[in-house]
Amino acid sequence: MKSITGALLIAAALFAASVGAAPVPASIPAPNYNVSPTSRDGRNDFNFELGSWRTHYRLLRKRLMRSHDWYDCSGTSVIRSFWGGSGNLEDGDLKCPKRYIAGMTLRLYNAQTHQWSLWWGTKELGVSPPQQVGHFDANGVGEFYAHDKWQGKSIICRFQWTKIHANPHFEQAFSVDSGKTWETNWTTDYERVSPTTKGLWNAHGGASDGHDGFDFLLGAWKTHYTRLRHPLANDHEWYRCDGTATVRPFWSGSGNLEVGGLHCPAQYIGAMTLRLYDATKRQWLLYWGTQKIGLAVGPPQVGRFDEHGIGEFFAPGTYDGKPIIVRYRWELRDGHPHFEQAFSPDRGKTWETNWMTDYTRVNRREISGACATSFHSVAFGRIGSTAAPPVSLTAALVIEANVAAGCVQDCRSQHLLATDAGVRGLS
């Protein structure tokens, strides 16, 4: 733990040197609740929520204090699916009596376990761990659980989704007695509206705070990947993959979701990147994941674009059992997006590039069919085994690349401590 903590501090120092001191954002932990198993195919269970909505929220003012004092908030939400329905992103807002909150929920379905994982976040917090895990039953009731803390108390948090008069209805509840009793503290009711209704998702924000840094990446793309077969081994053998990607904005450009796929020598890999901009700290948080593992365990890449349009984003990781720092670099080359990933085993003194991606813009219709079908049934070799430790963002990238090339490395991450912040403290 000391070595990975040291790498975390080093990565934070590297980032702070370029953008000013900033707290390290919360890491993505492994799931912490053992939900009941199911064999039911639930990949389409959130389809009833897709679309544009007006939302009405009721929040309990004081939680776990036998309070009956509720207050109301209103808002709007848009939910869009990807991976043929096995993933969706909800972005929206809450207008409360004394504050305004821009929120999002990322939902990913695991076709092997038949469980959904739900990550909630805001502009201020980024993605707020822990993830809620669960599934819908045959009656259309979805329940999703996580162990958490509330004001120092150990709790179980439950998300529950149902339909009321054919419209989505959401409830959040806490239990302090291992699930024997529950106190509901948050409800949301949805009313469907036209997609042209004004709301957060089609509002225009100012461009001076840096949140337009990834605008060059919005749209549909063909992608060409070049990857080093054996990182940090004085290796010069590269292999190539081709794929597609679609990048959609939300939060008026302060967030975007990239969904793509890689056709590698031995298999197809479906992947996604969630990017969130924190206007207060003027920094981007980048979260990477796959349909197999969900969001990768570990901290997000953190960074910003400079005045020349070059973006650098850092995070700690492990490779072959050794602590490293991972750097993402984004820039335009000849008018096209170009991405590079590099590892440093010596605290940022030297860097080895091991992954490059070049993007060529295409018409969205050219790849929409492939995205809808290929992501629906992707397989990822041996990673994500329940017998193996959870893989970090770094490990996910490297293991999947090596599985595709037929050469699995001994690459596993250690657990990183996550902060106790969360959506549950918003009210």
Describe this structure in words.
The protein starts with a helix and ends in a 22-residue tail after the last helix. The longest helix is centred in the first third of the chain and has 18 residues, at 2-19. It has a ten-stranded antiparallel barrel. It has helices at residues 2-19, 364-374, 393-405, and strands at 51-60, 70-82, 87-95, 100-110, 115-122, 126-136, 142-150, 153-164, 167-175, 183-192, 219-228, 238-250, 255-263, 268-278, 283-290, 294-295, 301-305, 311-319, 322-333, 336-344, 352-362. Strand 13 (255-263) and strand 14 form a beta hairpin. Mean pLDDT is 82; it is low at 1-9, 15-21, 200-208 and 369-427. The chain is built from three helices and 21 strands. It has two domains: 2-27 and 204-405, Calycin beta-barrel core domain (Lipocalin, Beta Barrel), CATH 2.40.128.20; 47-199, Calycin beta-barrel core domain (Lipocalin, Beta Barrel). It is globular and about 65 Å long. It is mainly β. The relative contact order is 0.17.
